[in-house]
């Protein structure tokens, strides 16, 4: 019987510009699954978030993280 758990953990760096910590921390599980995690950090002197998840991070997910911040700024 095949396992339903993907076998490769993906690690992404997402620049933090226009993304609020409270938004990404609250919604990461909804979009990338219960096994996803997010930690603030820096890569090449750019502040942002390291995301670990078995699901792929897509542009659809990125728009969902960024959209609440853009709406709040209006």
Describe this entry's structure for a reader.
With 74 residues, this protein is α+β, with helices and mostly antiparallel strands. It has two helices and three strands. It has helices at 21-32, 59-73; strands at 10-15, 37-43, 46-53. The protein has a three-stranded antiparallel sheet. A hairpin with a 2-residue loop joins strand 2 and strand 3 (46-53). Helix 1 (21-32) runs antiparallel to helix 2 (59-73). The longest helix is centred in the C-terminal third of the chain and has 15 residues, at 59-73. It is globular. The termini are far apart. The model is unreliable at 69-74 (pLDDT under 50).
Quote the average pLDDT: 80
Number of helices: 2
Largest sheet, order of strands side by side?
A: 1-3-2
Give Rg in angstroms: 13 Å
What descriptors fit this protein?
74 residues, 3-stranded antiparallel sheet, 36% helix, globular, disordered C terminus
